[in-house]
Amino acid sequence: KQEVTQIPAALSVPEGENLVLNCSFTDSAIYNLQWFRQDPGKGLTSLLLIQSSQREQTSGRLNASLDKSSGRSTLYIAASQPGDSATYLCAVWNSGNTPLVFGKGTRLSVIA
Amino acid sequence: ETGVTQSPTHLIKTRGQQVTLRCSSQSGHNTVSWYQQALGQGPQFIFQYYREEENGRGNFPPRFSGLQFPNYSSELNVNALELDDSALYLCASSSGDGTDTQYFGPGTRLTVL
Q1: Are A105 and A96 in contact (CB under 8 A)?
Q2: CB pairs under 8 A, 24+ apart, for A49-53?
Q3: Sorting pLDDT into bands at 50, 70 and 90, what band is B61?
Q4: Which of A27, B42, B64, B111 could covalently link to A102 via disulfide, CB atoms 3.0 to 4.6 Å apart?
Q5: Do A46 and B105 lie within an 8 Å CB cutoff?
């Protein structure tokens, strides 16, 4: 059974700092991995999708990497801003149309 | 291209009641998945519908049921509500070809008193 763990559970950083969020999964035979952002009480916004054949994806100040063999992914946020404050969720799925398996998320606070 | 929409936004029910939540999938998507997110937790898969048929189910009791309509919109029904059913219910749609990501709606916040 696939399990996803995110560390740390919460993180508080000063504005402008670069930071890394971690995600690990137990079954390395994943199809894709996706990072989401969730604002309090809101739905999920997709940030980056990494297909199993890829090693990383970049969008603006965000960079996500994937190491399938070790069962790990990282989300790097450069030059953090107060508007980045949210919960970041990592999710994997094991084949084409199977459900996403989520971690519990990392709650990020960026202090001005 | 319209996004995924859900209704209602918020709902308050009492124990033992029944509730129906609704989801309209993104244009061109034939697959809808429902997730339950308790406070402080990641979303948990409830079930998925593909072209009006249930196509997978998570570890939820039978009082959680669903439907998908010919226009691919979907309903989640929960009978005999329990306090632990209080959560954010998320709907996600996808193209069903296995290559696409799932696009999430804003969710319905259900409170059971």
Answers
A1: no
A2: A49/B101
A3: very high
A4: B42
A5: no
Place of tokens 């063999």: A69
Per the omega criterion (within 30 degrees of 0), is the bond before A8 cis? yes
Residue B26: C-alpha distances to residues A75, B56, B65 (Å): 27, 20, 21
Query: Which residues in chain B have their CB less than 8 angstroms from residue A88's CB?
Result: none
Question: Does the distance separating the beta carbons of A43 and B90 come in below 8 Å?
Answer: yes
Whether B104 and chain A come into contact, CB under 8 Å, resolves to yes
Is the per-residue pLDDT at B83 higher than 80?
yes
Alpha-carbon Rg for chain A in angstroms: 13
- B93 in A contact zone (CB under 8 Å): no
Alpha carbons A89 and A6: distance in angstroms, whole number: 8
The answer, yes or no, to whether residue A99 has pLDDT greater than 90, is no
